[in-house]
Amino acid sequence: MNYEELPDIPKEFFNSETGSPFSNCLVCECDLKEEAVPYSIERAIRHYPEMELKSVVFEYAMCAKCMAQMESELSSETKMAIMKYFAENFNYQNRPQWLAHSGDKESEALAKPEFDINDWIARCSVKELPREELYEYTLCARCIGDKIIPEVAPYMISGQAQDDLIELFSNKSLGFLDGFTDKYFTGPPELKELFKGRPILV
Ligand SMILES: [Zn+2]
């Protein structure tokens, strides 16, 4: 994977407070612009299709190191259940492909399709529901520096798929996530309640 060939992070994954890419890890606050550290972005959006209004429920970027630490806090039943759910329900077949130039002239002549974020997040990757009709959805991406890594992510998960996932969490894992939320999300209490019990998806 050649860093220079990766697409720039699309605005759908910008920090809504700054209108630019996330700069720091939510947990360790490391500088995400440092190319060497991949990180995940999750943005939960509440959408009011009738009014064409969107509001951010929560959003963050987290470095790979903190992500691995989070995962290790989840119970093994929870991890197994989530892996199984994704293996059985995530629509891998209909995912767009993104191939970097291999560098030789011949394959460049075949002109790879441009990266278009809408191809990746237009429908829920589990339920196939179109984004413009959803009241609640979550966007997930893996990034490095100011580039996005198009592999399994980026993807969009509907509120309906989130509800399925929450069911899979053991009490122990839910307790951990509640503690995590209390520590890192200081927004209005009603939004905090929404975040509680939410699985980290990337
Ligand atoms: Zn971190």
Description:
The two termini are 19 Å apart. By secondary structure, this protein is of the alpha+beta class. The model has no long low-confidence stretch (mean pLDDT 85). 32% of the residues lie in helices and 18% in strands. It has one domain (3-195). Strands 1, 2, 3, 4 and 5 form a five-stranded antiparallel sheet that branches. The structure holds zinc ion. The site of zinc ion (ZN) has 8 residues, from β2 and α1.
How is this structure best summarized?
The protein has 202 residues and is α+β, with helices and mostly antiparallel strands. It is 32% helix and 18% strand.
Q: Indicate the proportion of strand residues.
A: 15-25%
Residue ranges: pLDDT <50 for 5 or more in a row? none
Ligands in the structure?
zinc ion
Instruction: Please provide the count of β strands.
Output: 5
Secondary-structure element pattern, one letter each: EEHHHHEEEHHH
Number of helices: 7
Ordered list of secondary-structure elements with their pairings:
Blueprint: E1 38-48, E2 53-63, H1 64-73, H2 76-89, H3 105-109, H4 117-121, E3 136-144, E4 147-148, E5 155-158, H5 159-167, H6 171-184, H7 189-195
Key terms for this structure?
single chain; 202 residues; alpha+beta; 7 helices; 32% helix; 18% strand
